[in-house]
Design brief:
Multidrug-efflux Transporter Regulator, Chain: A, Domain 2, 107 residues, mainly alpha, 51% helix
């Protein structure tokens, strides 16, 4: 996930907030609505839902869907994509941990 950009307006929702419907998201990513449902069923993403059950995709979801689309183009299946996404998340978590550790002085 990424934070807000410096040029974002004060009224822009956070990147993690669901704002796009499934049809808009499908257009943004360049894939079919059924594919979005299949990715959700495979556990690759979990869009927010309204009280009525309508899916709402965030900017973070759109970025993740673009990554999924790129991995599919490389020939991975959904199970492989799930593994890659999990490893990328773990890698980022470890990088964040390393970055937050205080630096020890070198001798």
């Amino acid at each position: 996930m990424r934070g807000r950009d410096r040029n974002d307006g004060p009224d822009r929702p956070p990147d993690s907030q669901g704002v796009y419907g499934i049809a808009v998201t499908s257009d943004l990513v360049g894939t079919g609505i059924q594919n979005l449902r299949a990715y959700e069923k495979a556990g690759l993403l979990d869009p927010a839902r309204t009280a009525g059950g309508t899916r709402l995709y965030s900017s973070d979801d759109v970025a993740r869907l673009r990554r999924i689309h790129a991995l599919l183009a490389e020939g991975l299946n959904l199970a492989g994509i799930a593994m890659v996404l999990q490893l990328e998340e773990e890698n980022q978590h470890l990088r964040d941990q390393l970055a937050s550790k205080p630096k020890r002085p070198t001798k």
